[in-house]
Amino acid sequence: MTQKTNLIDGTAIAAATRAETAQRVAALKASKGITPGLATVLVGDDPASAVYVGAKRKACEEVGMNSIGYTLPATASEAEVVALVRELAGRKDVHGILTQFPLPKHIREDAVLAEIPIGKDVDGFNPINMGLLGLKGKRAPFAPCTPQGCVELLVRTGVQIAGKRAVVLGRSAIVGLPVGLMLLARDATVTYCHSKTPNLAAVTREADILIAAIGKARFVTADMVKPGAVVIDVGINRISDPTRKSGSRLVGDVDFDAVAPLASAITPVPGGVGPMTIAMLLRNTLEAAERL
Amino acid sequence: MTQKTNLIDGTAIAAATRAETAQRVAALKASKGITPGLATVLVGDDPASAVYVGAKRKACEEVGMNSIGYTLPATASEAEVVALVRELAGRKDVHGILTQFPLPKHIREDAVLAEIPIGKDVDGFNPINMGLLGLKGKRAPFAPCTPQGCVELLVRTGVQIAGKRAVVLGRSAIVGLPVGLMLLARDATVTYCHSKTPNLAAVTREADILIAAIGKARFVTADMVKPGAVVIDVGINRISDPTRKSGSRLVGDVDFDAVAPLASAITPVPGGVGPMTIAMLLRNTLEAAERL
């Protein structure tokens, strides 16, 4: 991929926010003697989950926060996981708790999430956070990390949100729903569309800001994008690519090569929204510690 | 107002749902010996609030439920109101708790709401309810009554929601936000617009289903409505009317006389969404008791 002038460089923006977080961590240590701590709970031996947790723990340490990792076997009972999270909820050195999903099927994710106090829910997955996101004047304790990353990319790129038409393609609890609510709270006119929307291209073409979060490889084609739109691609899809040694590569929900020439700004995949997620997790954890 | 064939008769639909609720109340008494009970908490002597609470209590009794009313003086402290709600939260004969808003200014509404257990929050005002509304497959404990009334009117009128474009004008926590999420969960393509939306008429004209909840008298004019749209008017605004003995009358957020000829179906004000709110409160209270 060649560097384009309209490219939103998530890697660089994430690095900048992480540097700011590192400064605030240092300031908190100096002023109050508090080192923010993120506890991660990994259950089972899913390789992808292990990679994600490892990346989050490493990122914590790089900004000067404590990373407190727990790994339970795939055979751990729900009661055991709940007991661990409950213990972490009460610990003073733990400011944020992250349980890596998916959990093994015999463990109910809701039951585990319910044990994380709102003030330590740095993933922002508690429904109460969702309910508060769209409300002007009320602040959700923590916005979920990926949608927050999308908004941060827009803000740091200088994209005006207020008064613009934002179209969110996808309505998942983790990304689509909350990012729409966050844009609404920032005075965008927000449309949610999805797999059941007829004439989808006509709807997505209304977007000044298009958030693609439908989870289908290169689903957003050039005819679905209004010239000049800002396109944020949340998708991470692996497709086969015989030209690569690995035989595959990552692409987003947007057909980048076709859409990029039309867009006034666009995030690449990888290197767009992805790096922002961990950066927002770190900032949420810091802020959980700052609020004490 | 003359009866129009495209009129959505909220009074009649509310009466039908109340009759169904009365039957289910009788069945619950017969099968389990449980009489659903709604506790109302009124603080101070605001005349409008007293009228609303009185109407809710009377409606409870009409469907065979217990109405348990508490009135505290305007001088009651936040701690006193919280203590009362906490006591009601623990009572077995109280299945739903309703604190009439607005509370006196020295009492934080959030602090009082936080004392109502989710399972007794029949007003559906807890943010956790909001967060769950938009999620397919997850059921919010209780949908807030007015938005639920809007959806019920659509369903009972046979209006198709899935695949339609729904536009919500207004984004309040009580009506706009939740009604949009409820329509999204029913597979509509949902757009939120509001006072900061430029070129508002062009946006509202996209609506197959238009929900007017902006709180401005006769704000929605004919040029803002696509011919054939279904219009749900949530507004209740008092305007002066020298031809009335009272000197005033109630109108909605829609310019009814101008819009009704265009719409395929439309709710009047009064007699549209209004009667549904109490009907949904009764049903929520019944369901709280049924779930025991």
Question: Helices, strands, pairings?
Answer:
Two copies of one chain form a homodimer.
Chain A (H helix, E strand, L loop, with lengths): L9 H23 L4 E7 L3 H16 L3 E7 L5 H13 L5 E4 L9 H5 L13 H7 L11 H12 L8 E5 L6 H10 L3 E5 L6 H5 L4 E4 L17 E4 L3 E4 L7 E4 L4 H4 L5 E2 L7 H17 L2
Q: Largest interface, counted with CB-CB under 8 A?
A: A-B, 31 and 30 residues
Number of domains of chain A: 2
Residue share in helix of chain A: 25-40%
User: What shape does the CA trace of chain A take?
Assistant: globular
Give the H and E element order of chain A: HEHEHEHHHEHEHEEEEHEH
Radius of gyration of chain A: 19 Å
Which stretches of chain A are poorly predicted, pLDDT < 50 over at least 5 residues? Answer: none
Largest sheet of chain A: 5 strands, parallel
CATH topology assignment of the largest domain in chain A: Rossmann fold
- What's the average pLDDT of chain A? 94
CATH class of the largest domain in chain A: Alpha Beta
Q: What would you call the quaternary organization?
A: homodimer
Structural class label of chain A = alpha/beta
Instruction: Report the sheet-strand fraction of chain A.
Output: 15-25%
